[in-house]
Write a structure and sequence with these properties.
Oligomer: single chain
Order of helices and strands: EHEEEH
CATH class: Alpha Beta
CATH architecture: 2-Layer Sandwich
Number of strands: 4
Number of helices: 2
Structural class: alpha+beta
Distance between the termini: 66 Å
Largest sheet: 4 strands, mixed
Radius of gyration: 21 Å
Strand content: 25-35%
Number of domains: 1
CATH topology: Double Stranded RNA Binding Domain
């Protein structure tokens, strides 16, 4: 997976790379079926003026589409965690849609019948 960073202040770069390395490993496990050169991850950061809030934006480009995720937090690490958590959920949903899990939805057991639901023999 190719990873690029843009619009990141040098003072936050080490913290972002350290935190995102953990999440990129998880993404690599989820995307192991894709060829490594086709998955591209683009990360950028923004600081909200007049507040102590950071925004972290992640774009994942795959062969079947592009996924966007944004995370906001009081510090850089929490914004990175929020963005990658959202991206992780999107990747799982995207893969389920590609596998057409909605067609193969299994019916669940209804559990124990209640007294009013017992079948009558009349």
């Amino acid at each position: 997976m190719k990873i690029t960073y843009s619009h990141i202040d040098p003072q936050f770069r080490d913290a972002i790379e350290l935190e995102s390395a953990r999440h990129v490993e998880r993404l690599n496990r989820l995307l192991k079926r894709y060829p490594p050169d086709t998955a591209q991850l683009h990360c950028s950061m923004e600081k909200t003026p007049r507040r102590t809030e950071f925004g972290f934006i992640v774009n994942l480009t795959l062969t079947a589409g592009v996924l966007h995720a944004t995370g906001y937090g009081a510090d850089v690490r929490t914004s990175v965690k929020a963005a990658f958590a959202e991206l992780d959920a999107q990747v799982k949903k995207h893969q389920a849609k590609l596998r057409k899990d909605y067609i193969w939805k299994r019916k669940r057991d209804r559990g124990v019948l209640k007294v009013g639901e017992l079948p009558t023999t009349s």
